């Protein structure tokens, strides 16, 4: 995973420069009549920071997926069977989610002076609390509702942010953090409702005679390996 993370982050950093040049050129053409002009500034330190963040995010996703898959026993892995989940593991997972939600909620309260950081921490807390909530209500409702609430909250706060006072570093940090939360919340919504999504895609594919044989298989596999599907989508989404 490390060579992939490095190559993906390098490609993403270079692509980011190109996208930034296009965006700045578009803005200058739109607001050029007002006498405003934005220069294209490429700072080596910022490129290194972007590369490092890309490597760490991608590598963390890969390591987490590898850790989960490494817990399969040999027979289960060879036969490609799902590992049976115990009630104890499910309860421990709920405790971890509750602990993360509580810590991020306390951190959000402590950082109420910075609206962007506070909104991100609150969104993470909402997503974390969906884990213990899923033991009380249907998991689809818990995960979809929590992720949707976090997604709407982050997008609303991101749209109301401004770079007042010239604090562009705080704005950039909040913008990057919002992107990470948006990716994970969106993936969580899709995975929690993957049966509906896969069924809809299968119907669309079945409309084509050439794609009809692959429709059933392509719709069944994401449901059989939801964690693998979610981790893969999240990994490419972050890249």
Task: Provide a quick synopsis of the model.
This protein is mainly α.
Describe this structure in words.
This protein has 239 residues and is mainly alpha-helical. It has ten helices and no strands. The chain has helices at residues 2-31, 44-70, 74-78, 87-110, 115-133, 139-160, 168-192, 194-206, 212-224, 226-238. Helix 5 (115-133) packs antiparallel against helix 6 and helix 6 (139-160) runs antiparallel to helix 7. It is globular. The two termini are 13 Å apart. The mean pLDDT is 79.
Provide tags for this entry.
mainly alpha
Average residue-wise pLDDT: 79
Q: In DSSP terms, counting alpha (H) and pi (I) runs of 4 or more, how many helices?
A: 10
Shape descriptor reads: globular
Which H/E pattern describes the elements?
HHHHHHHHHH
Distance between the termini: 13 Å
Q: Pairing-aware structural class of the strands and helices?
A: mainly alpha
Could you tell me the radius of gyration in angstroms? 21 Å
| Number of E-type strands | 0
| Portion in beta strands | under 5%
Give a short account of the largest sheet: none
**Share in helix:** over 70%
> Could you name the ranges where pLDDT drops below 50 across 5 or more consecutive residues?
none
């Amino acid at each position: 995973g490390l060579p992939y993370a490095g190559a993906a982050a390098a490609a993403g950093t270079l692509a980011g420069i190109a996208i930034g040049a296009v965006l700045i050129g578009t803005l200058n053409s739109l607001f050029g009549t007002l006498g405003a002009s934005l220069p294209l500034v490429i700072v080596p330190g910022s490129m290194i920071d972007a590369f490092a963040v890309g490597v760490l995010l991608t590598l963390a996703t890969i390591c987490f997926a590898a850790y989960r898959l490494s817990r399969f026993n040999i027979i289960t892995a060879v036969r490609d069977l799902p590992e049976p989940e115990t009630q104890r593991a499910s309860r421990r997972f709920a405790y971890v989610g509750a602990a993360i939600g509580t810590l991020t909620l306390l951190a959000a309260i402590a950082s109420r002076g910075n609206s962007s950081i506070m909104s991100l921490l609150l969104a993470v807390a909402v997503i974390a609390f969906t884990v213990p909530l899923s033991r009380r209500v249907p998991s689809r409702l818990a995960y979809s509702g929590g992720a949707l609430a976090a997604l709407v909250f982050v997008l609303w706060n991101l749209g109301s942010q401004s770079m007042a006072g010239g604090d562009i570093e705080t704005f950039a940090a909040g913008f990057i953090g919002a992107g990470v939360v948006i990716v994970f919340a969106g993936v969580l919504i899709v995975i929690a409702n993957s049966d509906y999504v896969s069924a809809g895609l299968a119907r669309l594919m079945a409309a084509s005679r050439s794609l009809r044989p692959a429709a059933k298989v392509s719709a069944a596999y994401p449901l059989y390996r939801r964690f693998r599907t979610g981790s893969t989508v999240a990994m490419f989404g972050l890249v």
